[in-house]
């Protein structure tokens, strides 16, 4: 099974890439996706996640073919 992972804004710059693709054989949560894609980095504070363009909690499960996105909080003015 595979999922696509995208990083946006300043997070993309700090990670050093804009996307990953993960292959997995067991069920994963959003948090597991972060850990597998970035094993040498702790999860940054205040980072938001989305699965298939819907905001998601870090304990949400992901499925084959999902797109998981990580991004800093968005502010407006």
How would you sum up this structure, described in words?
The chain is built from 2 helices and 7 strands. It is of the alpha+beta class and 77 residues long. The chain has a single domain, classed as Ubiquitin-like (UB roll) (Roll), CATH 3.10.20. A 5-stranded mixed beta sheet has the order 2-1-7-4-5. Strand 4 (48-51) and strand 5 (54-56) form a beta hairpin. It is globular, with a radius of gyration of 12 Å. The N and C termini lie far apart (41 Å). The mean pLDDT is 93.
Largest sheet: 5 strands, mixed
- Class computed from helices, strands and strand pairing: alpha+beta
**Percentage of β-strand residues:** 35-45%
Task: Just give the CATH class.
Answer: Alpha Beta
The CATH superfamily title: Beta-grasp domain
**Helical segment tally?**
2
Give the % helix: 10-25%
Layout of helices and strands:
Blueprint: E1 2-7, H1 9-15, E2 19-23, E3 28-29, H2 30-37, E4 48-51, E5 54-56, E6 61-62, E7 67-71
Parallel strand pairs: 1-7
Antiparallel strand pairs: 1-2, 3-6, 4-5, 4-7
Primary descriptors:
77 residues, alpha+beta, Ubiquitin-like (UB roll), five-stranded mixed beta sheet, two-stranded antiparallel sheet, 2 helices
Could you provide a short overview of the structure?
The chain is an alpha+beta fold and 77 residues long.
């Amino acid at each position: 099974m595979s999922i696509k992972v995208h990083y946006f804004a300043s997070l993309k710059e700090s990670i050093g890439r804009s996307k990953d693709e993960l292959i997995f054989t067991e069920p994963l949560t959003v948090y597991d996706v972060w850990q597998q894609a970035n094993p040498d980095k702790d999860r940054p504070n205040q980072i938001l996640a989305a699965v298939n363009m819907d905001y998601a909690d870090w304990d949400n499960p992901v499925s084959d073919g999902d797109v998981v996105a990580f991004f800093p909080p968005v502010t407006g003015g």
